[in-house]
């Protein structure tokens, strides 16, 4: 049975992809999501894509809603202006858990929220803008606060945002009825480590049982595991427990390498390494095995089958992983062994748009499964 994916390209396009056996093809393309589509979230029950536009220098960014028809065709239904520099979004709140959307704005040091459904003139519900007195240890990359993602905790009651510039993890308590966020105390990370993206992982059946937050550190080329402790009242506490390199033997990263995305699937964790050329000229994806307590053990590197794996996603069945290689601008689907966690051969691949320029904001920007 064919599977559907969605991909975005920094040139201003959003695509529907069809995976049928060993064939991956583009089945629909629209110009949408402003000038720099950067992130996709798929709302399966609502058959809607939410796309963030990273534009910030030559105008505002935007957040778009895109309706997905049964045949995979796409129609942009709303585009609301934002403060700009949008790099990630997540749905939260309401009775259905998808009545509001939060956005991380990297270049403008802000996290904002909007009520759904979007309208063209929709104002932000809330905005949280951060500042710093002086640059961080990495003066070039940590010149200002840079929230890089927003993610929802397993209980649906809290939002978090890793801030690469501040070396902090911002946290908010959610009022599900109104969508309003109340700030919790931020969590400090190791100085200079540059937290980028995160993923929650829960070992037990209960949402708050043995919960671990894994954070991909872009500047540290590492992953940190945080124990998550929920209180009867108030915000959860995060305690750093373990940090491992995304390279074999805990070794240093190749010059210029940067951790990208992080995902968990079953008892395994994956983090992409951009510009490491471990499979020259291709970059890599690191695999970690997770114990019942959430302790990480490095398993190995697999090829990203392209350059600059900005994004990747595991399908619901757990037997495939779709890699979005930004600079080579290609979606590559590889096999995944759900028992061992190991990534296998290429199932299918397809170029999406024009290739990008190394270290530039162009090329392929996001890929998600239609699940």
- Tell me the major beta sheet: 5 strands, antiparallel
Beta-strand proportion:
over 45%
CATH class: Mainly Beta
Reported CATH architecture: 7 Propeller
**The CATH homology group name:** YVTN repeat-like/Quinoprotein amine dehydrogenase
Tell the overall outline. globular
Characteristic terms for this protein:
371 residues; mainly beta; Methylamine Dehydrogenase, Chain H; 5-stranded antiparallel beta sheet; 4-stranded antiparallel beta sheet; Lactonase_7-beta_prop; 6-phosphogluconolactonase activity
List strands and helices in order, with pairings.
Layout: E1 3-9, E2 13-20, E3 23-31, E4 37-43, E5 48-53, E6 61-68, E7 74-82, E8 86-92, E9 100-105, E10 110-115, E11 126-129, E12 151-152, E13 158-163, E14 168-174, E15 181-183, E16 187-188, E17 195-202, E18 211-217, E19 222-229, E20 237-245, E21 258-265, E22 268-274, E23 284-290, E24 296-303, E25 309-314, E26 320-325, E27 330-336, E28 343-351, E29 364-369
Antiparallel strand pairs: 1-2, 1-29, 2-3, 4-5, 5-6, 6-7, 8-9, 9-10, 10-11, 12-13, 13-14, 14-15, 14-16, 17-18, 18-19, 19-20, 21-22, 22-23, 23-24, 25-26, 26-27, 27-28
Please give a structural write-up.
With 371 residues, the protein is mostly beta strands. It has a single domain, classed as 7 Propeller (Methylamine Dehydrogenase, Chain H). The chain has no helices and 29 strands. Strands 12, 13, 14, 15 and 16 form a 5-stranded antiparallel beta sheet that branches. Strands 3-2-1-29 form a 4-stranded antiparallel beta sheet, with no helix packed on it. A 4-stranded antiparallel beta sheet has the order 4-5-6-7, with no helix packed on it. The mean pLDDT is 97.
């Amino acid at each position: 049975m064919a599977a559907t994916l969605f991909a975005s390209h920094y040139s201003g396009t959003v695509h529907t992809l069809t995976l049928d056996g060993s064939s991956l093809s583009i089945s629909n393309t629209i110009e949408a999501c402003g000038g720099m589509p950067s992130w996709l979230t798929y709302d399966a029950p609502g058959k809607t894509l939410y796309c963030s536009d990273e534009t910030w220098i030559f105008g505002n960014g935007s957040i778009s809603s895109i309706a997905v028809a049964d045949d995979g065709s796409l129609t942009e239904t709303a585009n609301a202006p934002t403060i700009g520099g949008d790099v990630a979004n997540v749905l939260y709140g309401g009775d259905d858990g998808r009545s509001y959307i939060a956005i991380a704005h990297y270049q403008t040091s802000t996290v904002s929220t909007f009520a759904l459904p979007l309208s063209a003139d929709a104002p932000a519900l809330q905005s949280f803008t951060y500042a710093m007195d002086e640059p961080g240890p990495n003066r070039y990359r940590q010149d200002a606060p840079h929230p890089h993602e927003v993610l929802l905790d397993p209980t649906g009651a809290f939002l978090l945002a890793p801030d690469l510039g501040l070396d902090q993890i911002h946290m908010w308590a959610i009022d599900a009825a109104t969508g309003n966020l109340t700030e919790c105390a931020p969590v400090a990370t190791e100085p200079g480590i540059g937290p980028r993206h995160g993923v929650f992982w829960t070992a037990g059946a209960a949402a708050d049982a043995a919960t671990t937050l894994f954070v991909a550190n872009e500047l540290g080329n590492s992953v940190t595991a945080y124990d998550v402790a929920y209180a009867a009242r108030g915000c959860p506490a995060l305690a750093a427990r373990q940090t491992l390199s995304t390279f074999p033997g805990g070794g240093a990263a190749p010059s210029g390498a940067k951790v990208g995305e992080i995902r968990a699937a079953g008892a395994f964790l994956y983090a992409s390494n951009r510009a490491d050329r471990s499979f020259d000229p291709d970059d890599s994806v690191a695999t970690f095995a997770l114990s019942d307590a959430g302790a990480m053990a490095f398993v190995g590197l697999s090829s990203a089958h392209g350059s600059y794996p900005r994004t990747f996603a595991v399908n619901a069945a757990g037997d495939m992983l779709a890699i979005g290689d930004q600079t080579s601008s290609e979606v590559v689907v590889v096999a995944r062994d759900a028992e061992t966690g190991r990534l296998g051969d290429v199932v299918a691949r397809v170029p999406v748009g024009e290739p990008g320029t190394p270290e530039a904001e162009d090329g392929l920007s996001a890929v998600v499964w239609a699940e």
